Amino acid sequence: MERKGFWQSGHKPSLFSAFLYFDVSFMIWVLIGPLSVIIAKDFAMDPVQKANLVALPILGGSILRLVLGFLTDYIGPKRTGQIGMLVTLVPLVMGWKFVHSLDQMYIVALLLGIAGASFAAALPLAGQWYSKEHQGLAMGIAGAGNSGTVFTTLFANRIAQHYGSWEVVFGLAIIPIVLVFIIFTLIAKDSPNRPAPKKLSQYANILKQGDAWVFCALYCVTFGGFVGLANYLTIFFNSQYGLAPVRAADFTTICVIAGSFFRPVGGFLSDRIGGARMLTILYGGAGIMLACVATLPPLPVVLTLLFIGMMCLGAGNGSVFQLVPQRFGNEIGLMTGIVGAAGGLGGYALPLILGNLYKSTGSYMLGFICLALIAAAALCLLVVMQMRWRNSWMGESGKAKTTPIESAQTISG
């Protein structure tokens, strides 16, 4: 059978819909990150409470990702995405009209996780239309929807400042998600190759395999690092360098752009040179950048370091999800949900590490040293596992030994 190129295969309206759904959902998921420095003026918070506030949406996304992954298996990614967008309206309305205490703000933050759980429906919607050799790029394009973070960090604090209220930002966020819901409903389409629903026992069988835990750990560092920093950097720039809320969010935007737009680059390059080889470079780069940030250099320098570090983490997200189908081609739907949830847990832990160590030491130095060591540990794990994989399913180049073929093995959760 003659193989088709990427742009001649798949279903472009569904790929675009997956990107758009993920984009607006990501925008809403990280809404509290930049707004946290303004919200803190209404609810007095210490560094740990601020860290908890920006970490809760990530925790909610990690937990609910498994729920949406299960629904994606049984009712399809399109209907799951529609449900996800409708439920996302609940915390937006609550944040707009019904928050009067920090405890209520925590509830809203946790419920925003339903937007972060969009990963479990958006990626299957796109990936199920493409064969293995194109899945790295397809999932990278859909996953580039994390660029929605850019809109939040760039405009959320400006809108709050203009209207003199952070609550109005939640109200205005209802508009784009309703518009995307309409577009998504009209043009998205489930792949005819959607696999049969998985049983819960199959999840348990997957977790008995050591490689599954390895991929969870790898994605915990790349995606967890990206989304954790995206949520926390506004606080970092505000606390460490004394930047005003809007200015701090602008600097965060610059870093987020790097992570967002290099995700598909990571998937594309991994398709060419192999995901393991690409990840080796990216973990090394991220670790070096984070170690340098720990010295707390002048603002222009730290911005450059964080930009490159986030670029490595964002590209790493695409590389991990190029690699996973090569090992778990028959269970990729299950692995998508499991690995995605692990990434969310990494993002939940990162603000807590930085917030708690800042409260204890009065400096971010130790926190960023910890993050650099975590990246180094991921690199060491990858190197060790790569030597083992070369004897089983991976060639010397870091790519799968067998040539990818057109296949009904697709992504489902």
Automatic annotation (TrEMBL):
Subcellular location(s) per record: Cell membrane
Membrane-traversing stretches: 20-39, 51-71, 105-125, 137-156, 168-188, 212-235, 241-262, 274-296, 302-320, 332-358, 364-384
CDD domains reported in the protein's UniProt record: MFS_NRT2_like
Domain Major facilitator superfamily (MFS) profile: 13-390
Keywords associated with the record: Membrane, Nitrate assimilation, Transmembrane, Transmembrane helix, Transport
GO biological process, one term: nitrate assimilation
Annotated Gene Ontology cellular component terms: plasma membrane
Similarity field: Belongs to the major facilitator superfamily. Nitrate/nitrite porter (TC 2.A.1.8) family.
Protein's UniProt name: Major facilitator transporter
